[in-house]
Q: What sequence folds into this?
């Protein structure tokens, strides 16, 4: 989708983007190779050509950090198909308090489409361990993570690095008309959870941690299972939301 995108250029909105598509300018290469576009001033065209040529080189080099800094987060979803094979889903659990009032992360779950990994407070949850894991990936997927998970982590573990494009499914789904949190979205999309954690929510996760902290291995396993369902399901949902957002742009009409 990113190669079909022009609305990330300063001065080109979604309406002009669709006009380009209607004119047969479907990709960055089409734009660059077309010397004259009557509805774009020559000086602007030259500037856009330069920007797109540079972006193409960065895309070929798979430079995710470049796109994280040059494209508004609202449009990071457009990079999903490019970086899907190097994407990671992230979800955290906490003790229920704000990070500046005694709150802390109890568990960080990470899923790359194949393997689920977890980092637990008091065991393997360290800045070094999480940074080493995150450094393997070029694209981040969360649900409401731009508002909760990432800010919480940055306060409680300031040296963590988040410098790749971030697809926050929460806001992508809202653009499509979905309402509610992750559990409701899963239901709307027909995604089921394992029976052992079906119906559990974030408040339950807080109490599971409290019992686990007191020594209950059974509740710790349940907490890990709960987080795994959250994290693994993000990948399934991201694919669905990406495809629907792509259709919503109208690009399919011109391909």
A:
């Amino acid at each position: 989708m990113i190669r079909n995108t022009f609305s990330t250029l300063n001065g080109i909105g979604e309406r002009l983007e669709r006009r380009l598509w209607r004119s047969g300018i479907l990709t960055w290469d089409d734009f660059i190779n077309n010397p004259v576009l009557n509805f774009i001033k020559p000086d602007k065209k030259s500037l856009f050509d330069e920007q797109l040529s540079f972006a193409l080189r960065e895309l070929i080099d798979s430079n995710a950090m470049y796109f994280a800094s040059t494209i508004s987060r609202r449009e990071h979803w457009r990079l999903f198909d490019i970086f899907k094979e190097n994407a990671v889903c992230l979800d955290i659990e906490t003790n229920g308090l704000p990070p500046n009032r005694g709150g802390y992360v109890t568990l960080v779950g990470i899923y790359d489409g194949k393997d689920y990994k977890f980092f637990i407070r008091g065991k393997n949850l360290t800045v070094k361990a999480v940074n080493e894991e995150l450094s393997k990936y070029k694209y981040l997927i969360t649900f409401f993570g731009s508002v909760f998970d990432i800010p919480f982590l940055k306060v409680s573990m300031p040296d963590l690095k988040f410098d790749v494009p971030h697809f926050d499914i929460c806001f992508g789904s809202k653009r499509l008309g979905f309402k509610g949190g992750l559990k409701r979205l899963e239901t709307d999309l027909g995604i089921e959870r394992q029976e052992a954690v079906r119906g559990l929510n974030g408040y339950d996760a807080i109490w599971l941690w409290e019992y686990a902290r007191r020594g209950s291995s059974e509740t710790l396993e349940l907490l890990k299972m709960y987080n795994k369902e959250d994290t693994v399901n993000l990948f399934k949902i991201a694919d669905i939301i990406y495809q629907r957002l792509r259709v919503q742009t109208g690009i399919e009409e011109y391909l």
Summary: Residues 217-249 form the longest helix (33 residues). The chain has eleven helices and five strands.
